[in-house]
């Protein structure tokens, strides 16, 4: 590739005062964001404007005001070029039941401009990557939700896009399917080198795979920042011990740690590496059985709640 | 271990990416194959092929008559009118397979998120259905013509009649396609689509003798001839009479002049307009 190694900074995705008004509702309100490579999470409640934003970014819906660029291409004037090098996985069902996954993905690869033989090779490749084995030759009507989501992802990847938009890819999946899908999205963003914009109304799952998170509510930007910035302010550790929660809490408090007790669990605010040492020492001193010590969950959610409260 | 499969990781694609023209052609071919059930289950091939074979039977009979009796069978210009129920059943049975699944199962957004625009999508569907109907009518006509040339009947071959019938078959295919697809796209459930297309055809078939008979009994002979134009097959026969001077396949003939042709064009424009509106709405969802 000619651009490889060049210093040119490419805007994977940038919006400037992006506004979309429908007759009865304002779906996007002066949204300005700038997104780099890797996996970007787009978080918001249902109806926050996520799907509208994706449609505008695909060049399928003209903005009412402002503008947006995807891979340095303008959404209002260069929609066709964008759609050649971008993949899209919709939220809703979109698979005809009487066609096999292979046939379906080959056909859509051709629709993206791949010649037939290339389309076949790519379809076989991506179906393998998303984890569909022999069942890819069967009609999709008999597929489980997990398999259907994989085919939907495969069709978005088949033409080797530079960026993909995934609209609620974990919808309807069981916990295991959800974990597998998230791991796959992470691989796409890192190993495959394809930038990902993934939406979800579940905040917890995005923090596991995203480099960058955009939070929108009622079409307005609440926050856009790298995941590290997001979690810094509220980093906490969840500590679980078999017995003696109370003494441990007291001991940690004595050593100047901020501790809150949630039933059998302790939430300890991380003030630095010494927090981990303090917990270890306290557990050893008190001769307790340490079951679990993990990074706190729902960190983005906390930020989201705080900021939503600020805005209102 | 030679049987071990190595995961070679993700490979990027740096081959050609062809334009929307290629995608439209591929979609047309895909839809055309779908109409004849090619690449589908054996069950979906039965109906289109059965009807195509029925369409060929008169051609076989015509050739046999020419070979054995030195006498012409069915006239080129009469073929579409006489075979109209078969053509109508083909349209009703296969038009929904062209447009209904993509609407019903919401596949359309996957096309539109690619370089295929809604205009190209609809054009591909219209071209595919038109081609299928044209093949259905043109193949037996061509068979009769080839038979005529090989058997070498007394008198010159009816090349002008044959080409006239082909031209009209193409116009008929466009008209039937426009209506068939518009109706099928408004009723995305396949069964409903079949029923709605066949219902409209039967209505156009039943209306002709009723209105013609009524007007005739009122001694309105000139007005009665307009009744034939309510049915697409007789409408196109009237166009054929005007364009190529063929013998009318109706009782009492047709209204003279270009009126049938203008009606045909207006109907095609109307149905294409309905189709465009339907897809504009579908694309906005």
TrEMBL record, chain B:
It comes from the Bacteria. The chain crosses the membrane at residues 46-69, 76-98, 118-151, 163-186, 192-215, 227-245, 257-277. Coiled coil: none annotated. It holds the Pfam family ABC2_membrane_2. The keyword Cell membrane does not apply. Signal peptide: none annotated. Keywords: Membrane, Transmembrane, Transmembrane helix. This is ABC-2 type transport system permease protein. It comes from Nonomuraea endophytica.
